[in-house]
Amino acid sequence: MISIFCVISTAWNVIKNAAGLLAFLSGYSCVMGPVAGVMVSDFYLIKNRKLDVHELYKDHGIYHYTYGINWRAFAAFSAGFVPLIPGFAKSISPGLNVGGSWKYISPLGDALVDEAVLPSQTDDVTTEDDSYEAKDGLQAHTREVHVV
Hints:
The chain is mainly alpha-helical. 55% of the residues lie in helices and 0% in strands. It contains 9 helices and no strands. The radius of gyration is 23 Å and the shape is extended. The termini are far apart. Residues 130-136 have low confidence and may be disordered.
């Protein structure tokens, strides 16, 4: 089964160029983020950081699920992955028209990240002489963000 998937996915095309590799890693993070979230939540919140190794190998132990699938974990993964599908599709094919909805699902642009990391202070007053452009000769492009 794995060998068939490897041939279908054409892994050699992923590493052919840097753009393909970056697109693959971007799409991979869309999948692995929800997977990691489900695993960490299950271990820390559901199982309270306790795992019975002997029960893992029993046919009908405490970790037995219906048909071997933990449906609650699958639902939690789906809730985390479904909003990322437009961005996932866009990472696979940048020319794909997924509409404008993908922009609103993950609105973390540069300005919002800067605002989260370096929130503006009410007493910060800068003059043109104190700006970074005047000191280093750099040109900074900023956008105003209005938080409602």
